[in-house]
Write a structure and sequence with these properties.
The complex is a heterodimer of chains A (648) and B (100). Helix content of chain A is 71%, strand content 3%. Chain A is mainly α and 648 residues long. In chain B, helix 1 packs antiparallel against helix 2. Classes of the chains: A mainly alpha (648), B mainly alpha (100).
């Protein structure tokens, strides 16, 4: 098993790429920089494929495959190894991260081509790949935390990539601070895990947690506390209520970054972590309810904001928050493999949507306001068609990847709570509406830009190829689950089943379909699809058929419209309730009282005491040898007297 | 036989004279001589104890002191000559450049 033994190669390659480009890239040509970046990610992807191939031949007894390379920390009873782990869950994450990451690296060579910070960009992007791979390959919570913090760092660096723009650096800071809150929760959760299980290895903690009796409903035991703390971390990293505020601002970063970090991979780290720890959550009913509720509410909440945004990337950002909400809804109702399934399909279609949006922005010469686009369908056909595929996928059109994953989540949530199910279905309708609104505003209707100033052009090949590949994945990515509609099995769930072995059997309502024609039709045209269709028709009516209606609608519902346009004024509330008081306390108490008074006072006090005492003592140093001699004589006399005194 | 305490008292007196001269004299050469006086007072004490206790170590030690004193006299006189050349005086009150 050569590749499985040398697992560390997969994260190491991007790290080498990052180091090379970070140190030497500044003096190299762009071709050399992209060669380094692409070689490292390509090799990493190939290594991941080889690992997966070898993993498939492993006997079940050797899964999860854990390889410990060296002892990282050993202190008293505490021990953490640098150990990597591969199981079915890791395999899926590994393929998504290296595969989508590789495509986005290719795309970036086109998109960032004219940027002066070319080598810096690729150094950061490769560094991100390293930390993300550490996160998903880690075999214990501490190493996972290293990756977790590392991707946060890279996210910060890349959001603030255009550091001359004040708004970009502010957005980077905001992302960093909001994530601190979540990361603190995660760290507390990890510490509580160590306190409870005396270990941080997944292989020790998770079986032990599974054996513990579940916390009774309505009672917060230690498992519930751990689960809730871990979930706080997940809400920060995966942009859930109430910590989602950083993600929309994160769109200040370059578009490939939005696609890779803030859509496809990093923001799903929270989902991955919850699924990885799912046995803890299963024994904590309250935590499950919290996860499901937060996920569901976030999905609905973000979708409503997405309805009225005019910036093409902002719509996609809120859409990402909303889709992440779906994934947590899936986790909360116990359908963990459905959550991972949606994570995967979302990585395909949302990555594609962002890349296509980047292609649109590229074509428009940097314009991001959809009201200033329109009619682009004929001018950039490849971008249009790939984006159309992704829109169909995210809207849950039957047969596309998003349909299968979303349907599975909604089915699972119906068995737990009709309310969650209804809100989920409603969100599906909203999703369809805002996505088609985006599509219609951008590609249909009349051209709202000045043709003399904007030279619309299709993107170069190295940007289009990733679009096409991701479009194919967006269409076909869900077909692994398709057979269940014809009375077969869901291959995706089956593949993940060994990891979920300790979980309750995944809710598989659809799998009971006997394969009758009527039942298949019913499944394909279920209520979520009907809601999606309504959303599509509404968008078509409002933005293609009678483009004047939205304005009238906005005027007649101005209260609601302003609330949505202002994003429920959450940022303003946070600023008033948290940021302002913190700034006030820092200014008036921490700065003027604690810093200037206490800390400066102590330092200055020590200084003035030594200065004063020195001033007094220096009088003894007259420079007169005879007075020194007299002092010595006095000293000897006193000392001798004392000695005699003590002896006698 | 003269009692041991006589020698010790003589030694103490000589030493005290040395100390007093060291502190109150201004000429470096005189100060230097008072150092020699103190060293020889100590030598006398060494020999007294050596004889009183019947041990040789004290007398051996006196030889060491004499050797060190000879070396010190050589170095010290050289320094005194240099001070005299550089400053044109042997008054210790004028040799105070360490002050401030």
């Amino acid at each position: 098993m050569p590749a499985l033994t040398y697992l560390w190669i997969i994260p190491l390659l991007p790290l080498l790429g990052a180091a090379t480009n970070g140190i030497f890239g500044r003096h190299w040509s762009k071709a050399a920089v992209s060669r380094v970046a692409l070689t490292s990610t390509t090799l990493s992807f190939l290594a991941a494929l080889e690992v997966v191939r070898e993993f498939m031949t492993l006997p079940p007894a050797q899964i999860p495959w854990i390889h410990s390379y060296f002892t990282w920390i050993s202190a008293g009873g505490f021990r953490a190894d640098f150990a990597l782990q591969v199981d079915q869950l890791t395999v899926i994450m590994l393929l998504v991260v290296t595969g989508v990451g590789w495509l986005i690296h290719i795309y970036s060579t086109g998109y960032m081509h004219d940027d002066p910070g070319y080598s810096r960009f690729f150094a950061y992007l490769n560094l991100f790949m390293f930390f993300m791979l550490v996160l998903i390959l880690a075999a214990n919570y501490l190493l996972m935390f290293v990756g977790w913090e590392g991707v946060g760092l890279c996210s910060y660096l890349l959001i603030g990539f255009f550091f001359l723009k004040k708004s970009a650096t502010n957005a980077g800071n905001k992302a960093f601070w909001v994530n601190r809150i979540g990361d603190f929760g995660f760290l507390l959760g990890v510490l509580l895990i160590f306190r409870t299980f005396s270990s941080l290895d997944f292989a020790t903690v998770l079986p032990a947690a599974a054996k513990m009796p579940a916390d009774p409903a309505g009672h917060i035991g230690v498992l519930t506390a751990i689960a809730l703390l871990l979930f706080v971390g997940a809400t920060g990293k995966s942009a859930q209520l109430p910590l989602y505020v950083w993600l929309p601002d994160a769109m200040e970063g370059p578009t490939p970054v939005s696609a890779l970090i803030h859509a496809a991979t990093m923001v799903t780290a929270g989902v991955y972590m919850v699924v990885r720890s799912h046995v803890i959550f299963l024994n904590a009913p309250i935590a499950m309810e919290v996860v499901a509720t937060v996920g569901c509410l976030t999905a609905l909440f973000a979708a409503t904001i997405g309805l009225v945004q005019t910036d093409i990337k902002k719509v996609l950002a809120y859409s990402t928050v909303s889709q992440l909400g779906y994934m947590f809804l899936a986790c909360g109702v116990g359908a963990f493999s459905a959550g991972i399934f949606h994570l995967m399909t979302h990585a395909f279609f949302k990555g594609l949507l962002f890349l296509a949006a980047g292609s649109v922005i590229h074509a428009m010469g940097g314009e991001q306001d959809m009201r200033k686009m329109g009619g682009l369908r004929k001018k950039i056909p490849v971008t249009f068609w790939t984006m159309f595929m992704a829109t169909l996928a995210i809207s849950g059109a039957p047969g596309f990847s998003g349909f299968f994953s979303k349907d599975e989540i909604l089915n699972a949530s119906r068995n737990v709570s009709p309310v969650l199910w209804f809100l989920g279905v409603l969100t599906a309708g909203l999703t369809s509406f805002y996505m088609f609104r985006l599509l219609f505003l951008t590609f249909f209707g009349k051209e709202n830009y000045d043709e003399h100033h904007v030279h619309v052009h299709e993107s170069p090949k190295n940007m289009l190829v990733p679009l096409v590949v991701l479009a194919i994945l967006s269409v076909c990515g869900g077909w692994m689950a398709a057979p269940q509609f014809f009375g077969g099995v869901n291959h995706f769930d089956n593949f993940l089943a060994p990891v979920m072995a300790t979980a309750h059997a995944p809710v598989a309502a659809a799998a009971e379909s006997s394969g009758g024609v009527m039942e298949i039709l019913q499944a394909l045209l279920g209520i979520p699809v009907i809601f999606g269709l309504i959303g599509f028709l509404l968008a078509w009516w409002l933005y293609v058929r009678s483009p004047e209606t939205p304005k009238k609608l906005a005027a007649s519902l101005s209260g609601v419209y302003k609330l949505l346009l202002g994003k429920y004024f959450v940022d303003e509330i946070y600023i008033a309730a948290i940021v302002r008081p913190l700034v006030w306390i820092s200014d008036n108490i921490l700065w003027h009282v604690v810093d200037e008074g206490a800390i400066d006072g102590v330092v200055n006090g020590v200084a003035s005491v030594s200065r004063e005492s020195g001033n007094q003592l220096r009088r003894a140093n007259t420079g007169n040898v005879r007075s020194y001699a007299a002092w010595i004589a006095v000293g000897v006399f006193v000392f001798t007297t004392l000695l005699l005194w003590m002896v006698a | 036989m003269v009692p041991t305490s006589y020698f010790l008292v003589l030694s103490a007196i000589l030493f005290g004279l040395g100390v007093v001269a060291f502190i109150f004299k201004r000429n470096i050469l005189t100060i230097f001589m008072s150092i020699e006086l103190m060293l020889n007072a100590v030598n006398l004490a060494f020999i007294t104890f050596s004889r009183a206790l019947g041990q040789l170590q004290g007398q051996v030690f006196v030889f060491f002191v004499i050797v060190v004193a000879a070396a010190e006299a050589a170095v010290g006189l050289a320094i005194i000559i240099l001070i005299n050349r550089n400053r044109g005086t042997l008054n210790v009150e004028r040799v105070d450049s360490l002050k401030d």
